[in-house]
Amino acid sequence: MSGPGSYYAIVTGASAGLGKAFAGELARRGHNLLLVSLPETGLPDLSELLRGQGNVSVHYIETDLMRKEAPIEIAGYAREHGLEVNILINNAGIGHGGEIGEYSDAAIEESVFLNMRCATLMTNLFINELKRRERAYILNLGSFGGFMPLPYKSIYSATKSYIFNFSLAVREELRGTGVSVSVAMPGPVLTNHRVMERINRQGFIARSNVIEAEKAAAYMLDRMFRGRALIIPRWTMRIAYSIGTLLPYRLLMVLLGKIFRGIN
Fold first, then answer.
1. Mind telling me the catalytic residues?
2. H runs (alpha helix) in the chain
3. Distance CA 102, CA 82 (A)
4. Average model confidence (pLDDT) for the chain?
5. Which superfamily is assigned to 8-260 in CATH?
6. Of residues 123, 57, 51, the one with CA closest to residue 92
7. Which of 2, 48, 90, 105 has the maximal Cβ count within 10 Å?
8. How far is C-alpha 220 from the geometric centre of its chain's CA atoms?
9. Whether 11 contacts 35, CB under 8 Å
10. DSSP letter string, 47-71
């Protein structure tokens, strides 16, 4: 693992939830940061706080990643300010759910743009920069739901399946370079009260597998720096992944349908 030095880690969706936890953990470890999030979500205050706590350099960009120009603007900002990037964390995403036919056009566009398009564009834009480093890292945030079709979260699970396959394919393309690509597929992560309410509606299984954002971020970063391809926080979720591969497909779909029906 190369030391932080003067290099920067980009974290998208950095103002709350896992993104905020990633930013805090990286600052604690001495990594300089370029944080990206929506305007008016507290990014200036968070950046100032992290500068004081971690004795690191923190830049931020307030932008809507739904804008097709946003990834290019982020790359331009890094270039103009001489920020040498060695870590890219594609964390921004959204988790719309519901029955097909009831989604709004906006919900579909947000799911596809934030969960798939943004991570792809950011990776494509920064890959040559990362290749210039002796050691560099990409961490893409998928979801445990990306391992299987989820009734009533069909679009979400499909976009996270894309992230899973995209990440592992790019990892193989970069074999022999200094760039390590990891994909994190976490289960339920406790980020706020609304998320906890949704987890409670999913029942005992979801509640027993929840992990706090800070613990999840620390675990994922540890494995990212070790060069792991697939990262699943919490041992119970790793067991669930193994069990899920053994269940008959039809039984799995029935169980998942019962869990996710009417909870979004």
1. 156, 160
2. 17-28, 43-54, 70-80, 105-112, 118-131, 154-173, 193-202, 204-209, 213-225, 235-244, 249-260
3. 46
4. 86
5. NAD(P)-binding Rossmann-like Domain (3.40.50.720)
6. 123
7. 90
8. 10
9. yes
10. HHHHHHHH---EEEEE--TTSTTHH
